[in-house]
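Intended use. Records like the one below are meant for learning the mapping from a protein sequence to its folded structure. Do not use them to infer anything beyond what is encoded.
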Amino acid sequence: MTWADPYIERLLCGHTVQFRPHGNSMRGRIESGQRVTVAPEPDREPEPGDAVLCRVHGRCFLHLVKAVQGHGPRRRFLIGNNRGGINGWIPRRHIYGRCVAVED
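Structure written out for the chain above:
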């Protein structure tokens, strides 16, 4: 079980969630401890620049979509942080929600 599992479960049920992520990988966009609101948006395709709650290689992140490649079921998304780090490519099904608000 990861820190994000309770939020992912609620997102998969169609609920918007709020939480306070910790860490410096998104510094400049989301500061450690700021409250974020993440919405499921199942009908909206993620775009480069979106901050998304996702799973990459078994680990959960609130990170950025850096690039999109392919179409249809082969479409995939490159995930990375706001400091130049790259986590890897994932399918759409591993993106659970998009950050729609950041509060102090």
